[in-house]
Amino acid sequence: MKASETAAEKTAAKKAPANKAETKAAEPKKTAAKKTAEKKTAEKKPAEKKPAAKKAPAKKAAPVIEETPAAPTAPVVEEAPAPEYHEPETPRRSICFIGSECYPFVKTGGLGDVMYALPKALVKQNCDVKVILPRYKSIPWEYQEKMIYRGAFHMDLCADGRSFYVGIMEYVWDGVVYDFIDNDEFFSYGNPYTNLIDDIPRYIYFGKAALAALNYMDWIPDVIHCHDWQAGLVPVFLRTQFANTAIGHAAVMLTIHNLRFQGIYNIPTIKYWSGLPDYVFNKDALKQGYEDANMLKGGLTYCNMITTVSGTYAGEIQTSFYGEKLDDHLRYHSGKLRGIVNGIDYDIWNTATDSRLGVNYDITNVLEKKKEAKRMLQEELGLEQDDHKFVIGLISRLTNQKGLDLVNAIIPQIMDEHTQIVILGTGDAEYEDSFRYYENAYKGNVCSNIMYDETRSHKIYAGADALLVPSLFEPCGLTQLIAMHYGTIPIVRETGGLKDTVEPYNVYTNWGNGFTFDNYDAGLLLDAINRAKTLYFTNRWCWDEMVQRDMDKDVSWDSSARQYKQLYLEMTPR
Ligand code: ADP
Ligand code: GLC
């Protein structure tokens, strides 16, 4: 109650900025709609140029009308601009994203990309979107300095009633409102994830603080959209401690980006920090095994809708191989489980405007310019400069999820005088060390960049000929999408989102987007790489067609954002 007093006072004091922020979020709606229209035209242009054969006949029809000496008014009709296509607007919904990372503030992998790009895409789908994140110390100063203070209060958290400070710092950008939960005790570390001992209390606090902040700001969304285990307790808090508060009426969706991480710890610890009632620690909700509590599992039980990031992964996680011990729980809840594949942000990933590249290109000049991009990459990385070499890229967190055991096993067989490998990643020491070893063993033809470097990743996507993604499991995967969009052919294992987004190349029909293999086996990966090399060296014409086909493929967020919007509407019928 102490908390609400402070909240009331602060709300009164801060009403103006609050409204401002909300108006700001609403205003770009129009701009966003216009932008969508502009984008549509812009995006269509390259497509019109390329498959000219398809578009040309339509244009040829026009002069026929010109020639008809019909009524004198005819030219006026001709000159009238073609009616602009406007997507019919679905009813407006307000959505609050809650998650642990978001580009460009903090990113360790694809979750960060999605937390940035999906809200932006939803604004175009007539949504009012707010994103709640922790205010980590590592957020670059250029963003910190632009945040405005939105208010602060104290929140009861633990079973013994310990209360904690919750500050709210706000930043509005591209029609999306970002609210950062400020607390030095929990978020004073550089990186978002440290170890479970610290992470468990930190994200319990974060989940509850996010809901308390929404009540405090009096911003009650139609749908709360939580991401991964770090926000796993949000649905549980919502339906227990917050059930009789304003926010308690919101619907809640939980998206699984990676089932491997679940936020599991002993029951007494999670019970203490969350202050949640005993009855949620039963085997159908938080309890796992005999003595553990599982934050993600609790969220899956209490949310209205579960989504994951591809249709195939939605099926896979209901099997024991991919289910990470939650397969039975997910089968039980399968009625509310859906898969929607991720996209990529076309403003960030745009070969024609990407300022991180030494050379820009588009579908019309990719074949020439990509050679330049390859040369520049080779030069920057100290590789032999030769644009006839087949350059294979690998951009990845270095963990066993990513199929690196397979890669390690076959590097000696991949390497010949026509091939180079460029690796970019950080992670487990065993992989970092083995890739360093190979760099040394194949000096001038293997380059292992053991680092996290956004700019270098762009240069590899542009300069490589192929990108390896041989994952053991891959909920969606963004690197194969970015690669295709940059005219780089993916070589992937047929699992999760990789299976849903990369159509295997078929030599007989000369169709497909990349090279694939099914079982998790080093020999099959080698075979896929060899098939790619064969096409590259013996049938460049077909390879080049695939490069252009991949650049032309729609891997944007448009269609997926529409599907999310549809689910939000299903969850909030009026
Ligand atoms: P995951 O989320 O499992 O790591 P995704 O394929 O969904 O895999 O997303 C990975 C994202 O992180 C991509 O945007 C990729 O470019 C980026 N990335 C991964 N490793 C690095 C790195 N070392 N340097 C720069 N970007 C990286
Ligand atoms: C996870 C998955 C990855 C997915 C990303 C974004 O990190 O490992 O496959 O693309 O989340 O959803």
Task: Describe what you observe in this structure.
- The protein is of the alpha/beta class.
- Helix content is 44%, strand content 17%.
- It contains 22 helices and 18 strands.
- A nine-stranded mixed β-sheet has the order 3-4-5-2-1-6-7-11-12, sandwiched between helices. It has a six-stranded parallel β-sheet with strand order 15-14-13-16-17-18, sandwiched between helices. It has a three-stranded antiparallel β-sheet with strand order 8-10-9.
- α15 packs parallel to α16, α15 (404-414) crosses α20 (522-538) and α20 (522-538) crosses α21 (540-552).
- The structure holds adenosine-5'-diphosphate (ADP) and alpha-D-glucopyranose.
- Residues 109-111, 114, 257-258, 309, 342, 474-478, 497 line the site of alpha-D-glucopyranose (GLC).
Share of helix, binned: 40-55%
Order of strands in the sheet with the most strands? 3-4-5-2-1-6-7-11-12
Q: What is the average per-residue confidence, as pLDDT, rounded to a whole number? A: 88
How far the N terminus sits from the C terminus, by CA atoms, comes to 33 Å
**Compounds present?**
adenosine-5'-diphosphate, alpha-D-glucopyranose
Sheet having the most strands? 9 strands, mixed
Summarize this entry quickly.
This protein has helices spanning 2-26, 28-49, 52-67, 74-79, 110-123, 141-144, 184-187, 196-217, 234-239, 267-274, 295-302, 311-316, 327-332, 366-381, 404-414, 429-441, 454-463, 479-485, 496-501, 522-538, 540-552, 558-571, and strands at residues 93-98, 127-134, 148-156, 163-173, 176-182, 223-227, 251-256, 264-266, 287-288, 292-294, 305-308, 337-339, 390-395, 419-424, 446-449, 466-469, 489-493, 515-517.
